[in-house]
């Protein structure tokens, strides 16, 4: 084979799949197959760690930019909705959910204790870290040991989230809808005034049928910049209190929450709270999947079945 032909052949081959990271003092950028996916932020000025912005494999941002950025015409409600985040509105009556500075009530923060490992790879890469949930008196209540695994895929973006919450002192996760594992989507993907539609594993569609119901997964799909895209959250069978309930709203909030039974059932006799004695733990296992097409064309039900077989 002539050298010129060989060069052309090599140039035509796809680049090797790759997940790599750029570490900064207060953030870690995630690059998948040579393209930016998102940034894990843990700066001291933020009340909790968050992943934003998040992008599809085609490069379209799927999360709302506010409050990190102010984009003309974008909604500016709920300033605590930062990309993808993981907190709860009542731990020992301290709010770790709507915990932006200012306002009334007791507010906690989630701060980085240590980045243990940042591991790049050909098919997947991971970040392993410990965070502390600290109350308004400066006392740690909960230690969060978190691993986020990012997968290379030609058409999808896949993130596995494995978090163990261990009580430093007695920690009561109160019954409230304000939580827990959440994403705030762009306005164009909302059900209300946008192109979006929610559907769960039981085939229920729309906020009225999805909100407050237990289901192993929910998919929220719509059109962004002329492309049909969806975002699914999967709850693994090994996750605490599987299948989770859903605090999923028609304005773009999309959250798994196992604690909010009184609100979800509109029944004050329900109690979804859970107490951890010092040293006790609970574990949560989720997958976030950003896909082209709608729920059916992406084969979300089959993809969930594959995820459910994964052993953690």
User: Which structural class do you get from the secondary structure elements?
Assistant: mainly beta
Rg, rounded, reads: 20 Å
Q: How many distinct beta strands?
A: 18
Quaternary structure type:
single chain
SS summary, helix count: 5
Report the top-level CATH class: Mainly Beta
Global outline: globular
State the helicity in percent bands: 10-25%
**What string, H for helix and E for strand, traces the elements in order?**
HEEEEEEEEEEEEHEEEEHEEHH
Please state roughly what percent of the residues sit in beta strands, choosing from under 5%, 5-15%, 15-25%, 25-35%, 35-45% or over 45%. 35-45%
Q: Characterize the biggest β-sheet.
A: 8 strands, antiparallel
Distance separating the two termini: 48 Å
Q: What is the strand arrangement across the widest sheet? A: 6-7-8-9-18-14-13-12
What number of structural domains do the residues give?
1
| Annotated CATH topology | Beta-galactosidase, Chain A, domain 5
State the CATH architecture. Distorted Sandwich
The unreliable regions are 1-14
Walk me through what this model shows:
- With 312 residues, the chain is mainly beta.
- It has one domain: Distorted Sandwich (Beta-galactosidase, Chain A, domain 5).
- It is built from 5 helices and 18 strands.
- The N terminus is likely disordered.
Notable traits:
312 residues; mainly beta; Beta-galactosidase, Chain A, domain 5; eight-stranded antiparallel β-sheet; four-stranded antiparallel β-sheet; 5 helices; 18 strands; 10% helix; 40% strand
């Amino acid at each position: 084979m002539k050298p010129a032909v060989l060069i052309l052949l090599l140039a035509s081959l796809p680049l090797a799949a790759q997940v790599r990271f750029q570490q900064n003092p207060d953030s870690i950028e995630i690059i998948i197959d040579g393209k930016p996916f998102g940034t894990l932020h843990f700066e001291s000025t933020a009340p909790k760690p968050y992943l934003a912005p998040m992008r599809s494999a085609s490069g379209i941002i799927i999360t709302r930019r506010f409050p990190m950025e102010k984009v003309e015409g974008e909604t500016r409600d709920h300033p605590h909705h930062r990309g993808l985040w993981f907190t709860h509105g009542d731990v020992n009556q301290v709010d770790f959910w709507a915990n932006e500075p200012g306002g009334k009530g007791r507010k906690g923060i989630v701060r980085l204790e240590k980045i243990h490992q940042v591991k790049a790879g050909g098919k997947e890469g991971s970040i392993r870290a410990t965070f502390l949930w600290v109350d308004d008196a400066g006392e740690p209540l909960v230690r969060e040991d978190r691993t986020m695994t990012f997968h290379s895929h030609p058409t999808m973006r896949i993130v596995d989230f494995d978090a163990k919450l261990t009580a430093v002192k007695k920690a009561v996760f109160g019954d409230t809808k304000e939580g827990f594992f959440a994403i705030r989507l762009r306005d164009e993907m909302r059900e209300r005034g946008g192109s979006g539609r929610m559907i769960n594993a039981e085939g229920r569609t729309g906020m009225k049928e999805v909100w407050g119901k237990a289901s192993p997964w929910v998919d929220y799909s719509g059109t962004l910049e002329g492309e049909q895209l969806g975002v699914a959250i999967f709850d693994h069978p090994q996750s605490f209190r599987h299948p989770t309930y859903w605090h999923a709203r028609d304005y773009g909030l999309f959250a798994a929450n196992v604690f909010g039974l009184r609100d979800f059932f509109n029944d004050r006799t329900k109690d979804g709270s859970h107490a951890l004695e010092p040293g006790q733990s609970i574990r949560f296992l989720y997958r976030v999947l950003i896909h082209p097409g709608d729920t059916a064309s992406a084969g979300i039900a089959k993809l969930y079945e594959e995820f459910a077989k994964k052993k953690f």
